[in-house]
Specification:
Helix content is 51%, strand content 6%. By secondary structure, it is of the alpha/beta class. The chain has one domain (15-211): HUPs (Rossmann fold, 3-Layer(aba) Sandwich), CATH 3.40.50.620. It has a four-stranded parallel sheet with strand order 3-2-1-4, with helices on both faces. Helix 1 packs across helix 2 and helix 2 crosses helix 10. This is NH(3)-dependent NAD(+) synthetase. Keywords: ATP-binding, Ligase, NAD, Nucleotide-binding. GO terms for molecular function: ATP binding; glutaminase activity; NAD+ synthase (glutamine-hydrolyzing) activity; NAD+ synthase activity.
Length: 260
């Protein structure tokens, strides 16, 4: 499969060992160059964070996995069990912080404000508090141990702006930024990510039963095709991708400042 100019490499079954080793070396180099003691990673039990955790393990970098449920949501979705399966397989140090008290304390409950908003804005405004609170926990934990926060967002998510600004979009380094979802699964298989994680539907865990592809209105395979060939294969999906790119442009742009 040919790449476009935005994608300088492609990971497949033949070269996955090479790229996994290169990515692990890059991670170790970033930590060592900044004289950090290691890394902190938010563990949701999903495929992306599991692959990054395994890359850190391959890099022989001290990484602490932080599970941050909102009450019982990780148990309800089996994300806790999946995360623990990975942790136990690779013997990762881990910590659990329930973010429910912090999220609930930060939620605006003024009926006038809520009534004046659209239903979609109400849902997303609440859902996006969670990744922003998780980011705060990660950065405090990282600073306590002189560590970096490592990101897990992949290229498919970035292409359609599918991340929370100042939430899961905040990190110090990210090995998956130029990696499509298809490549994530190739890495997962090579690195030994448990099959229970590889087989489940990707979810950002924004609310119970939420899945990425249902919320996006397109599949990751379609987004990957758009990245690699310039089209998803369906004009309506291409249009939706372009629309999402326009709507999320502010997430990538420098913050506007008045310069006189």
């Amino acid at each position: 499969m040919e790449n476009n100019l935005r994608k300088p490499f492609f990971i497949n079954d033949e070269n996955v060992e090479q790229y996994a080793q290169q990515m692990a070396s890059w991670i170790a180099g970033q930590v060592n160059a900044a004289n950090r003691q290691g890394l902190v990673l938010g563990m949701s039990g999903g495929i992306d964070c599991s692959v990054v955790a395994c890359l850190c393990h391959l890099a022989n970098v001290d990484v602490h996995l932080i599970m941050m449920p909102y009450g019982s949501d990780m148990n309800n979705s089996k994300s806790h069990a999946h995360g623990m399966e990975l942790i136990e397989k690779f013997n990762f140090p881990y910590h659990i912080f329930d973010i429910k008290p912090a999220v609930d304390a930060l939620t605006i409950n003024n009926e006038a404000y809520i009534a004046a908003s659209s239903e979609s804005n109400r849902v997303l405004s609440l859902a996006n508090i969670r990744p922003r609170v998780r980011m705060t926990y990660l950065y405090q934990f990282a600073q306590l141990g002189s560590r970096f926060v490592i990101g897990t967002g992949n290229m498919a998510e970035a292409t359609v702006g599918y991340f929370t600004k100042w939430g899961d979009g905040a990190y110090d380094l990210n090995p998956l930024a130029m990696v499509t979802k298809q490549e994530v699964y190739t890495l997962a298989k090579y690195l030994g990510v448990p099959e229970s994680i590889q087989d489940k539907s990707p979810s950002a865990g924004l609310w119970e039963g939420q899945t990425d592809e249902e919320e996006l209105g397109m599949s990751y395979a379609q987004i990957d095709a758009f990245i690699l060939t310039g089209t998803s294969g369906e004009p309506a999906i291409d249009e939706l991708i372009h629309r999402r790119q326009q709507q999320s442009a502010h997430k990538f742009a420098a913050i506007p400042t008045f310069k006189g």
